[in-house]
Write a structure and sequence with these properties.
The complex is a heterodimer. Chain A is built from 13 helices and no strands. Chain A is mostly helical. Chain A has a single domain (46-250), classed as MetI-like (MetI-like fold), CATH 1.10.3720. Chain A is globular. The two termini of chain A are 29 Å apart. The relative contact order of chain A is 0.15. Chain B has helices at 38-46, 87-92, 101-110, 126-138, 156-172, 184-190, 208-213, 218-224, 312-317, and strands spanning 2-11, 14-23, 27-31, 52-57, 60-61, 72-75, 144-148, 176-180, 193-198, 201-206, 226-234, 237-240, 245-247, 256-263, 268-270, 280-292, 295-302, 306-310, 325-330, 336-339. Chain B contains nine helices and 20 strands. Chain B has two domains: 2-215, P-loop containing nucleotide triphosphate hydrolases (Rossmann fold); 226-339, RNA polymerase II/Efflux pump adaptor protein, barrel-sandwich hybrid domain (OB fold (Dihydrolipoamide Acetyltransferase, E2P), Beta Barrel). The model of chain B has no long low-confidence stretch (mean pLDDT 89). In chain B, helix 4 packs parallel to helix 5 (156-172). Chain B has a six-stranded mixed β-sheet, sandwiched between helices. By secondary structure, chain B is an alpha+beta fold. The chains are: A mainly alpha, B alpha+beta. Chain A binds chain B through residues 149, 151-152, 154-163, 169-170, 173-174, and chain B through 46-48, 66-74, 76, 80, 82-84, 93-94, 97, 136-137, 140.
């Protein structure tokens, strides 16, 4: 059967595609290609790149270490307040990042509830990124665990395997694709984090100035440098997208 | 070993309440309609469903122990092999993983599936998966082995193959086995007791012969409404142990011990020696009449002894009563041959 596409639908969709694609094209067209090598190897860019990598990978590590057990609890255990906990995990997804940054200040700032003195340090930038990135990992991994037939875990138990050993030997290998997808999403989100980071950790070159903050700081002063930095972030995002190849939608099946 | 148990499980509207005991080498066929609690009972034994009561194996109370400390083997429906592990590593899982591989190899060899060692579950057929799952459970020398419908998802030829494997290996297994099944042939092939469950209660617990002779409920009568003749098949005939013979629908591929299964409703009774298309006819003596729903089950002595299920009208027409001499007959096409 051939199905016709109504013209208004096609037109609206085309507008949508242009709206999404043109900004990307803009970056590619306006990128200072001839001067790119020098722009990207300048010491301030390399420093921002290093801080971005440290903070985003650190945020990813935090997300995995505490996020995977959290995902397991949500997927496999029944306890009072579970729906509240799930809503709590989702909050950073919908919260404006700048509000997240303010909240982090109130919690872990110098005069926060838990005065860890994280504000305006590299650790603080890492914490801000983990705060916004973790929900992506938790929700993806929870979905992956929930879609694994729990009889595998039950059989493992009858074969003498403790719950922790079962998690390590059965559940974790089976949700690896989901974990990889969740990790990639969380890492990409951490890498692009701006609002919470600048609010909680500031924009201190060499300490908390990540690539997105560098783009923002450079845009006034040296627009072509900002475009070059944007190109780097665009390339990293594209790499994550290619690595995922739509797997995050079908993870765990 | 001995098993004594009183199991109570409440799942919303459903209540299971059973008392069950068994001894060394017992193979119990657990039968019952859908939703009667068969799988739930197995899960309660394995510690996978919250229950009250007691599960004692060799006088040791297990109902308070977590599943990993019970040493009860459980093979769920469709085998549930770990999809990320090879057949060998599935069997080795309960033997300490990699360290258990040599012992796991022995078990694959015993079940005649050593050639499958390196395959992932997705590359195994249903029958092969069941054998691997059986090896995985047996390898830990469980005290109690629970098999949940090991044959239901298999096609006919795989079923014959797995049934033979179960018969062989359950005979060697010295613990207690409980097999959930929907097939009366299973009950008479490898079980020495039939435990019937309906609506969460045990309605009958007896030998297969007894349950076939006098099923306690309509559902059981439907299920067990089959005669099973043990004997030796060669060519197109089955020589029944203890006397008598049956013509088979077609010659068996190889002579050997076999079971001829004939549904009770396919056995007809006659006052005179029947002349007609029924190729199997032999004289019998009526021993007992048992009502079974709207029909009557007639237990007859003879060579071989047989159960016929007839209408009350037939009982009246034939003036059937204890001690009457009549003829039993069945068509050769009604005989299902199970090679043992």
């Amino acid at each position: 059967m051939t199905s016709r596409t109504p013209a208004p639908m096609a037109a609206a969709a085309a507008v949508g595609v242009c709206f999404l694609a043109l900004p990307l094209v803009g970056v590619l067209v306006r990128a200072p290609w001839s001067d790119l090598g020098r722009q990207l190897t300048s010491s301030s860019t390399l420093t921002a790149l290093r801080i971005s990598m440290e903070c985003s990978l650190g945020a990813l590590a935090i997300s995995i270490v505490v996020g995977v057990p959290l995902a397991w609890l949500l997927a496999r255990r029944e306890f009072p307040g579970k729906s509240v906990l799930r809503a709590l995990v989702t909050v950073p997804l919908v919260l404006p990042p700048v509000v997240g940054g303010v909240a982090l200040l109130l919690a872990f700032g110098r005069r926060g509830l838990v005065p860890l003195h994280l504000a305006f340090t590299t650790w603080g930038a890492m914490a801000a990124e983990a705060f916004v990135a973790m929900p992506f990992l938790v929700l993806t991994v929870e979905g992956a665990i929930a879609s694994v037939d729990d009889r595998y875990e039950q059989v493992a138990a009858t074969l003498g395997s403790s719950p922790l050993a079962t998690f390590r030997r059965v559940t974790l290998p089976l949700v690896m694709p989901g974990l990889a997808a969740g990790a990639a999403l969380a890492w990409a989100r951490a890498l692009g984090e701006f609002g919470a980071t600048i609010t909680f950790a500031g924009n201190l070159p060499g300490q908390t100035q990540t690539l997105p903050l560098d783009v923002y700081a450079t845009l006034d002063r040296d627009p072509s440098a900002a475009v070059a930095l944007s190109l780097v972030l665009l390339a990293l995002s594209a790499a994550v997208l290619v690595a995922l190849r739509g797997r995050w939608r079908v993870s765990g099946r | 070993m001995t098993l004594t148990s009183t199991v109570e499980v409440s799942l919303g509207e459903f209540h299971l309440e059973t008392t069950l005991s068994a001894r060394d080498g017992d193979v119990l066929a657990l039968v019952g309609p859908n939703g009667s609690g068969k799988s739930t009972l197995l899960r309660a034994f394995a510690g996978l469903t919250p229950m009250t009561g007691s599960v004692r194996v060799d006088h040791q109370e297990l109902s308070t122990a977590p599943p990993e400390q019970r040493n009860i083997g459980w093979v769920p429906q469709n085998a549930a092999l770990f999809p990320h592990l090879t057949a060998l590593d599935n069997v080795a899982y309960g033997l300490g993983g990699r360290r258990g591989r040599p012992a796991a190899r022995d078990w694959l060899r015993r079940l005649g599936i050593m050639n499958l060692a390196g395959r992932k579950p997705s590359q195994l057929s249903g029958g092969q998966s069941q054998k691997v799952a059986l090896a995985r459970a047996l390898a830990r020398h469980p005290r109690l082995l629970l098999l949940d419908e090991p044959l239901s998802a298999l096609d006919v030829s795989a079923r014959v193959d797995v049934r033979r494997a179960l018969r062989t290996h359950l005979a060697d297994f010295d613990g207690v086995t409980i097999v959930v099944t929907h097939d009366p042939v299973d009950a008479v092939t490898f079980a020495n007791r039939v435990v019937a469950l309906e609506a969460g209660r045990v309605v009958q617990d007896a030998s297969p012969t007894e349950v076939t002779r006098a099923p306690r409920t309509w559902w059981l009568a439907q299920l067990m409404g089959a005669n099973a003749f043990v004997g030796h098949a060669s060519g197109g005939t089955l020589l029944v142990d203890g006397g008598g013979m049956l013509a088979l629908p077609e010659p068996v591929p190889a002579a050997g011990p076999a079971l001829g299964v004939v549904p009770a409703h396919a056995v007809t009774l006659h006052r005179e020696k029947p002349r007609g298309s029924a190729r199997n006819a032999w004289p019998v003596v009526v021993r007992e009449l048992v009502p079974a729903g709207a029909r009557v089950r007639v237990q007859c002595d003879g060579q071989p002894a047989v159960v016929a299920e007839v209408t009350p009208e037939a009982v009246a027409d034939l003036r059937l009563a204890d001690g009457e001499q009549v003829w039993a007959s069945t068509k050769a096409t009604e005989v299902t041959v199970v090679l043992l």
